[in-house]
Specification:
The structure is a single chain. The protein has 274 residues and is α/β, with parallel strands linked by helices. The protein has two domains: 54 residues, no CATH class; 199 residues, 3-Layer(aba) Sandwich (Rossmann fold). The chain has eight helices and nine strands. The strands form two sheets. A seven-stranded parallel beta sheet has the order 5-4-6-3-7-8-9, sandwiched between helices. Helix 1 runs parallel beside helix 4 and helix 2 packs across helix 8. It is globular, with a radius of gyration of 18 Å. The N and C termini lie far apart (40 Å). The N terminus is likely disordered.
Amino acid sequence: MGRFHRHDDGTEHEHDHAHDHDQGHDHGGDQASAAALGDHTGYATGGERIQVLERIFGENDRTAAQNRADFAANGICSINMMSSPGAGKTTLLRETLARIAGTVRTGVIEGDIETSLDADRLAGFGAAITLVNTGNGFGGECHLDAPMVRSALPRLPLADLDLVVIENVGNLVCPAEFDVGEYARAMVYSITEGEEKPLKYPVMFRSAQLVLINKIDLLPHLDYDLDAFRSNLRVVNPGVKTIEVSARTGEGVDTWCDWLQAQLTSFRPQAATV
């Protein structure tokens, strides 16, 4: 089964996902054209594909607006937390919940294709946790979209929350292409992934308001050029905020929590107008 994707230039296309998502994947620019939805002339079904694209993204964007309105009506700041598989976002989120427990009423929407492994790891830190397995009714997608997030909202005590963290499915492309109704986006990047990732996966890096540079404790042990990564990041997202963190040692986690608090502060005046 194919999947449809938007590029950072606004074009969209479909491709097969028979490959392994654990390695990440880039969609390239070969499908892009001046046409609003991309060049589908290579397919005999090109016209039908464009109609399907319009329906898929139309449904998603309408549902994202509903999610955003529901979050705002309940005074909830929502953060879409994205990364590749294995970048460490669940471990970082555990450390985060341990620090903000008792001060920020937090809910988590945990997204995975299968299993409750990550959701189980987040239990016991005072947050309300709800799981979305995309393999259950959502085609086993490699990302969360707005309808998936909406399906999770009735399972959260929205009236009693200040913050909802949406931990997206681990993937360096697809999650960045779907608005789920979030207030802001934070990306967790591990230095073990290599310096070139912003150039190879620009949609993800460009969409984030914050890039958390994780596993920084490994820097002395790796042949890794942090300055080169920062230079590549500036190419695709000039001026984006970055925080160096280690979910294992706790370095930078308090600064990340401060950023979350700043999002709560900036969100509240907007929520008050809803």
